[in-house]
Amino acid sequence: MQVIANQGGVGATVRGVDLARPLTDADFRALLRALGTHGVLCAPDQSLEAPQISALGSRFGTLEHNVANMFHPDGHPEVMILSNVVQDGKPVGLNDAGQGWHTDMSYSTEIALANILHAKQVPVRDGRPLGDTQFLDMHAAYADLPAEVKQRLEGRTAIHDFNKFWEMMRQRPGSTRPPLTEEQLRRKPPVSQPIFRTHPITGRRVLYCNPGYAMRIEGMEEAESDAMLDFLFRHQSQEKYLYSHRWTPGDVLMWDNIATTHNAVADYRADEPRYILRVQVMATLDYARLAA
Question: Could you tell me which residues come within 8 angstroms of residue 115 by beta carbon, excluding any fewer than 6 positions away?
């Protein structure tokens, strides 16, 4: 297996491994280290179905069963279908395009290590793939914070709320998302998260506060909290932290949900089909030991 770093600070290509087959211990360790080092890994020319992507994700941690997952392959509720395809007047997957910047599972007490997505269909126009997934590097964003901001926020926490993001998505043109039910809201109440975390693989500090879910900084007056969050969101969105992945059918894309934020670009139409399988890996293992 080879891990080939992209030019710039984020992302790498992984070659010489068939991810539909069980990983050897050596390949698992190499992928885990590469995930911490590069933040985003792409293994092209893969062919996985729901059982294979589920098995791959399970090697890295417990898989989440999303409370709002209405679209999954039969027998695999842990696998989500992301798609704009409509059959017999009904969507076959969740259309996730145009979400805005966020970090999956920051709204949960138990956070996520990684996302793993596998592209089956990629929208194309005039020979160019559409629907890029973009990433921002939160290792670098933390490192570049002014010293006075680091000092002011060290040890502080922010409230993250699943319903904030869900309602923002519901307001987008063409959205088919229903409001969350009382049961879904009960299962995902707002939670408190540290603004700075120590990454479990790299041991380095990261900025863990994203515009999709973060609502307010605890212990601050509302105006002060709003101003600080605005600063953090503008700081982390600088182009120097950006990597944009251009999809090809067969890509398996794995990204670090602790050290990156991400955004799905909504530049394709309803008649330009997209179909992707997704699993969410929760941070349930001792990654420092496993990567050693």
Answer: 104, 253, 254, 255, 257, 262, 278, 279, 280, 281
Q: Which of 292, 286, 241 is closest to 113 using CA atoms? A: 286
Q: Tell me the C-alpha distance between 38 and 6, whole Å.
A: 9
DSSP-derived secondary structure letter, 185: H
DSSP letters, 116-172, are EEEEEE--EETTEE---EEEEEHHHHHHTS-HHHHHHHTT-EEEE-HHHHHHHHHTS
Domain residue extents for the chain: 2-291
In the chain, DSSP assigns E strands to 2-5, 12-15, 40-43, 80-83, 86-87, 90-91, 112-121, 124-125, 128-129, 133-137, 157-160, 191-194, 196-198, 205-207, 214-217, 242-245, 252-256, 260-264, 275-282
State how far the Cα of 94 lies from the Cα of 285, in Å rounded to an integer. Answer: 29
Average pLDDT over residues 53-69: 90
Superfamily of domain 2-291: Clavaminate synthase-like (3.60.130.10)
* Largest pairwise CA distance in the chain: 57
Distances in Å between the alpha carbon of 107 and those of 37, 52, 129, 185, 187?
25, 27, 31, 12, 11
Q: What is the pLDDT of residues 189-206, one digit of tens each?
A: 999 999 999 999 999 999
What are the pLDDT digits (tens) for 232-260?
Answer: 999 999 999 999 999 999 999 999 999 99
9: confidence class by pLDDT, cuts 50, 70, 90 = confident
**pLDDT digits 0-9 by tens, 64-91:** 987 666 899 999 999 999 999 999 989 9
Query: How much is the pTM?
Result: 0.93
